[in-house]
Specification:
The chain has 202 residues and is α/β, with parallel strands linked by helices. It has two domains: 103 residues, 3-Layer(aba) Sandwich (Rossmann fold), CATH 3.40.50.170; 94 residues, Rossmann fold. The chain contains six helices and nine strands. Strand 2, helix 2 and strand 3 form a beta-alpha-beta unit. The chain is globular. It starts with a strand and ends with a strand.
């Protein structure tokens, strides 16, 4: 059975590209991206989708009177494309109840920090400025909080003495491109089970 994946994006889409590549090279099997949805009209992630023959959709949040109305429109697009799961790949909006309840434990996000530390935006810079010796990234299920859902995979990245926020971010991104596809692979193979806050790998 093929898992249909929808990806929500806002930016350049390098994590989207890592999923596309790992589906195309066979690492993630029995899965396909059926639609990429962006809240930003010129997000380069939309171009990445087009280059691989994937339907791309831009939905302008300002066209809607409320977050709920916007999310109902997104939900309609996801259902039209048969989405079984949702990936957040640099999607800069906090999902609301409308989408989360429809896809409970079927939404996965990649975050460039070792949660629960450094939630929200600019997590790499937050970690660097705090002076941590170990940074990293986290793949987690999405709930209604800001980066608070059950953790699937984390990867540590040492902070070097000569690091800048940019160099640290680049090394974290390299690991994001490894653990995000790994988490998607586990999910599509039915090897993830959520028990409270704990994600068990079958």
């Amino acid at each position: 059975m093929t898992t249909n994946i929808a990806v929500l994006v806002s930016g350049r889409g390098s994590n989207l590209q890592s999923i596309i590549d790992n589906i195309e090279n066979g690492y993630i099997q029995n899965a396909q991206i059926t639609v990429v949805v962006s809240d930003v009209s010129d997000a380069y992630a939309l171009e990445r989708a087009r280059e691989h023959g994937i339907t791309d959709v831009y939905i302008d949040p300002s066209d809607f009177e409320s977050k709920k109305e916007y999310e109902l429109e997104v939900l309609e697009i996801l259902k039209d494309h048969g989405a079984d799961m949702i990936l957040l790949a640099g999607y800069m909006r906090l999902l609301g109840k409308t989408i989360i309840e429809a896809y409970s434990n079927r939404i996965i996000n990649i975050h460039p920090a070792l949660l629960p530390a450094f939630k929200g935006l600019h997590a790499q810079e937050q970690a660097f400025e705090y002076g941590v010796k170990v940074a990293g990234c986290t793949v987690h299920f999405v709930d209604e909080g800001m980066d608070t859902g059950p953790i699937i995979i984390q990867k540590c990245v040492p902070v070097l003495d000569d690091d800048t926020a940019d160099s640290l971010s680049a090394r974290i991104l390299e690991q994001e491109h490894k653990i995000f596809p790994e988490a998607v692979k586990l999910f599509t193979e039915g090897k993830l089970k959520v028990e409270g806050r704990i994600v068990v790998h079958a």
